[in-house]
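dumping this here before i forget
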Amino acid sequence: MIKTMKWGLCLMALTAVAGCTVHHSFGDHFGAYVAPAEEQAFKTVGYRWDYENTALLYVYRPATQWSMDELETPSFNVNDERLFNIKGGSYTWYEMEPGSYDIVMRRGIFGFEGLGWFEIKRLAEIYLEAEAGKVYYLRYSEIDPPVIDPDLEDIPLGDGPLQLVAPSRALAELKDTQMIHHGRGLLAAQDIEVDESLQQVFEAGLEQSEATDASSPFADDTGLKARPRTKEEEWWPF
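structure:
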């Protein structure tokens, strides 16, 4: 434990110097074998969420021998922010603003998962377009093969161990899970970033174009451009 804390302090010091982002889950990386989920048993959210304006996301991991004997858990990251590490036999839920979400699962060593662009191991990555009023079930399992559920309304979505599954499958497995102490919050969708320098260039070009049009020799008093005459309509010496 002390060695792990020392490693964490060293990495944070390196980050401050190098200016890179450290991907870590120190203190929250212990698996179910060391620290099992012991919160309340699964209970549906029901109508206790803003279903008119947000989506609802359940994230869970079935209780298997592999997941329950695990010493270190993978992290669940949304839009470049780590939310929690998912233990075997656990679940949580979030409300989501409508929009795009980049979901990444990472596995590290003693809580350290990467530095900047470098990652110890990326397990899965999916892009989810959340719609208000919809309920999504994300299932994580490293031992089960990907399954295509025929009763999904949309095209099945997943990457390796992380799969979007149908309610029938999810609810059958969620009843054997325990709530973890993370979640029950509101997630914000990705912002559409606009390069300010490109925006300024575009606006400057637009203003210059409008000024050129207004000062054109073919423009009348209203600023509208007149149609140039053809060779047949005016005297042409050549």
